[in-house]
Automatic annotation (TrEMBL):
<dbReference type="GO" id="GO:0009055">
    <property type="term" value="F:electron transfer activity"/>
</dbReference>
<keyword id="KW-0479">Metal-binding</keyword>
<feature type="region of interest" description="Disordered">
    <location>
        <begin position="117"/>
        <end position="155"/>
    </location>
</feature>
<dbReference type="GO" id="GO:0005886">
    <property type="term" value="C:plasma membrane"/>
</dbReference>
<dbReference type="InterPro" id="IPR003245">
    <property type="entry name" value="Phytocyanin_dom"/>
</dbReference>
<keyword id="KW-0325">Glycoprotein</keyword>
<protein>
    <recommendedName>
        <fullName>Phytocyanin domain-containing protein</fullName>
    </recommendedName>
</protein>
<feature type="compositionally biased region" description="Pro residues">
    <location>
        <begin position="117"/>
        <end position="147"/>
    </location>
</feature>
<keyword id="KW-0186">Copper</keyword>
<dbReference type="Pfam" id="PF02298">
    <property type="entry name" value="Cu_bind_like"/>
</dbReference>
<dbReference type="InterPro" id="IPR008972">
    <property type="entry name" value="Cupredoxin"/>
</dbReference>
<dbReference type="GO" id="GO:0046872">
    <property type="term" value="F:metal ion binding"/>
</dbReference>
<feature type="domain" description="Phytocyanin">
    <location>
        <begin position="11"/>
        <end position="112"/>
    </location>
</feature>
<dbReference type="InterPro" id="IPR039391">
    <property type="entry name" value="Phytocyanin-like"/>
</dbReference>
<dbReference type="InterPro" id="IPR028871">
    <property type="entry name" value="BlueCu_1_BS"/>
</dbReference>
Amino acid sequence: MMAVCGLSEGAVFKVGDSAGWTHIGHVDYKTWAATKNFHVGDTFFFQYNNQFHNVVRVTHKNFNACNATAPYATLTSGNDSFTVKRGGHFYFICSFPGHCEAGQRVDIRVPRNSPLTPIPVPSPSPNLLPSPTPSLSPSPSLSPSPSPSASDVPAPPHNGASYHVPSCKLWLMSMVILAFCAYRFRLLGMFCFSDQLRIF
Ligand SMILES: [Cu+2]
């Protein structure tokens, strides 16, 4: 409505907002200016019918006296822009008879230490560059993760147990085989004995 933001440059303020630059309707330009935050680099746009108005930049003294005889500048196009390049007060009046007295004047105060808001914006981006370093931290976090796998080393006890079982089975099997062999040999011995008996 009144302030159109230019991101890389200053904001653009339409003086008087929708009312524009006029002496009709009792636009309170003092209140208009008081409700805005101006910065160096901002642009002020004066829109008016140039058949009935103009924009004259004057001194503080001439602003108070509605005196346009020694202006800094006079703008008459009806669509005039004024960009503020430093802090301080900027006084504008309309020089048409009776208009300034009727309230068509504005005191635009721009704080001296008010750099354009966009200026700090680029500095954060360098701050974003260091962020990659935190991304490096994850890699150390990854190195600890392998260590838990090392903690899995206690698994050997598991393996030992698994070894125990086959050894038991082996022992049992060997015992069975031994018993079987002993039985077989005994049978053989009996046969031999019986043969010997038969022989005898
Ligand atoms: Cu006027």
